[in-house]
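Journal club prep, notes for RB
We'll compare a predicted complex against what the paper describes. Inputs for the FE2/S2 (inorganic) cluster case:
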Amino acid sequence: MRIVNHPILTFPEQEMVTFTLNGQNIEGVAGQPIAAALYAADIKVLHHSHKHHRPRGLFCAIGNCSSCLMTVDGIPNVRVCVEPLRAGMTVETQEGKGKIV
Ligand code: FES
């Protein structure tokens, strides 16, 4: 799901790291947003709405809404669209957990 060849753009060599989503190992590019790594792994539902439990994915992708809140390394309500990926991170969905801050 990741663009590696482009007719105009070139991409520098990137460090791949491993992190977990709900205990499942996933690879991503260090320093890119966690959400980018999840989308590259074809994971597009990041949580569900509180009231109707509708699937939610990226909406603004700039850290201004609540569509991508997840628990990262035990910290709830992290906006994964702007949180850089580091090796060994633990990412969890937070269905019904935590308050929006
Ligand atoms: S998608 Fe809006 S804050 Fe992440």
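Talking point for the session: The radius of gyration is 14 Å.
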